[in-house]
Design a protein that fits this description.
The protein has 140 residues and is of the alpha+beta class. 28% of the residues lie in helices and 40% in strands. A hairpin with a 4-residue loop joins strand 4 and strand 5.
């Protein structure tokens, strides 16, 4: 079964320095790759043990930790889905970077019930460029 672990660079020297979150994707023993996510976080807001941003709503360095965490969870689901749809025997070495470069991040507003009251919430969604091109071709 494929797995994903997130981490930040060890080269970060100070707690107030922003760094890009990196990932290690392990599809099987022949496909273990590292990649950059394009998502940034301040080093002091990163929980190395959990491999996720700290559970803070407001932070000292204005990171939206809850939003970053949601984006990473969305990214995990997307990459695992890509892996499950791919033929693991003939997958290219560059597949992980291709999947990540195809991502288009969209933030959608949706309504949800919180404590019995209807509120507007934002939901992160990933749509790949390849999927959009495929849909555009079908519509022609």
């Amino acid at each position: 079964m494929a797995s994903i672990k997130y981490y930040i660079s060890r080269a970060v020297k100070s707690d107030n320095e922003r760094t890009e979150i990196q990932l290690r994707f392990c599809g099987n023993r022949n496909f273990v790759k590292r990649a950059l996510t394009g998502i940034f976080v301040t080093a002091s807001n990163w929980d190395s043990e959990k491999g996720m941003p700290k559970d803070k709503r407001s932070t000292k360095f204005s990171d939206e930790c809850v939003e970053i965490k949601e984006r990473l969870e969305c990214l995990s689901k997307y990459l695992l889905n890509c892996w499950n749809e791919a033929d693991s025997e003939s997958i290219s070495d560059n597949a992980l970077n291709q999947w990540i470069s195809d991502i288009i991040w969209e933030k959608e507003e949706d309504s949800a019930f919180v404590n019995g009251k209807k509120k507007q919430v934002f939901v992160w969604r990933i749509e790949s460029k390849a999927y959009r091109e495929e849909v555009a071709i079908r519509q022609k």
